[in-house]
Amino acid sequence: MTIQNRDKFLDHLAERLGQPRHQLADHPYQQLNDLPQQTLSDKTPAELLALARKTSEALPVTFYEVAAVELPQLLTDYVASKGGGPLLLPTSKHFADYHLTDWQASIAATETVNYWQPQADRATNLKAAEMANISLSFADFLLAESGTITVSTNPGQGRALHFLPTHYLSIVPRSRIVARSTQAVAWYEQERQAGRLDSSAIHFITGPSNSGDIEMQLVTGVHGPLDVTYVVVDD
Fold first, then answer.
1. How many CB atoms lie within 10 A of CB 99?
2. C-alpha 85 chain-centroid distance
3. How far apart are CA 234 and CA 173, in angstroms?
4. For residue 92, which of 170, 177, 184 has the smallest C-alpha distance?
């Protein structure tokens, strides 16, 4: 997308103000301090995990920490607690990474399971997300400071997977708990420059959708899932 008539508008504005155009090349951005990099940098991994749990549960998010061997049973119990399918799962190599291929087969034997299809048209995937009772995603990071997960859109895990189903669960490895957004953004930028980031969008999801800005009454699930669960897997 291009910005139309930007220079014409800014030239007109500068003329009316009676001053020359501000040029970023002449006034480069100078960071006043290193707080974005240093905040919480002294925390140990255990302290970051504790902080992530505290900030997440305050949102509120249901927060689990499990060993990899416990993950299949936790997912099965979670599906049952939310009333079963339809489930919407990503098409992802992470199922193998987390040793969940047997779980995929077992859950498909008892529940309706659909996958986000990389080759399908937009309407097909949107319909699957719209009809899903539960969706599962694999997050890139969990930000301890705010209880935020970051997820990158890719052909096997599209945007609507995170926002249209009724219940949402995201899995993140414990090693990917970082202090705050600056660490995650630095990684994404590094991956983008190296050509390894195949994503049209990066989402920062901070718990379930909440709205209370009009009548000052907190309503959960207005713009997204009714509830959100984070599962931190010890890796």
1. 12
2. 22
3. 6
4. 170
